[in-house]
UniProtKB/TrEMBL annotation:
Residues 12-144 form the HTH marR-type domain. One of its GO terms (molecular function) is DNA-binding transcription factor activity. The keyword Secreted does not apply. The keyword Transcription regulation applies. InterPro entries: HTH_MarR-typ, WH-like_DNA-bd_sf, WH_DNA-bd_sf. Keywords: DNA-binding, Transcription, Transcription regulation. It comes from Pigmentiphaga kullae. This is DNA-binding MarR family transcriptional regulator.
Length: 148
């Protein structure tokens, strides 16, 4: 966009600027809530995916949470050290690593999963249902445009 349109790249009026800062605020609030449990936001993202689909390959897990497989390795190592997940080689393909929750990792689900809804509700305080639907629709469209 041009400077004359009032939305200079990198300005506080740009979509990217606002989305990035909203995301940082979400992450900060989530980190505050996770702190007492010794879980980071990145670890929570992995756990959340595993709560939805346990025992998946490391490649599939990386795709599900939209990160590079290499950047996932350190997070998985820390979750494994905490006793929240286990990694095992696949019986059918020895090159694949399967990631599964432990009982301890599964037990965190009812404690930590509600944070997502709580933070969404906090962020959307004062929005009408119509406004929320429109916001989600617009962000989905923007994401689609950027990913295609």
């Amino acid at each position: 966009m041009s400077a004359s349109s009032g939305a200079v790249q990198g300005s506080p009026h740009g979509i990217g600027f606002l989305v990035r800062h909203v995301h940082k605020a979400f992450a900060r609030v989530l980190a505050e809530r996770l702190g007492p449990y010794g879980v980071t936001s990145a670890q929570w993202t992995v756990l959340r995916s595993l709560w939805q689909e346990d025992c998946c390959s490391q490649v599939d897990l990386a795709a599900n949470i939209r990160v590079e497989k290499a950047s996932l390795t350190q997070i998985l190592s820390s979750l494994e050290r905490q006793g929240l997940i286990v990694r095992e080689r696949s019986d059918t393909d020895r090159r694949r690593w399967l990631v599964s929750l432990t009982d301890q990792g599964r037990a965190l689900e009812p404690l930590l999963l509600p944070f997502a809804g709580e933070i969404d509700r906090l962020a959307s305080t004062g929005f009408s249902k119509k406004e929320l639907a429109e916001l989600k629709s617009l962000l989905t469209r923007a994401l689609h445009h950027l990913e295609s």
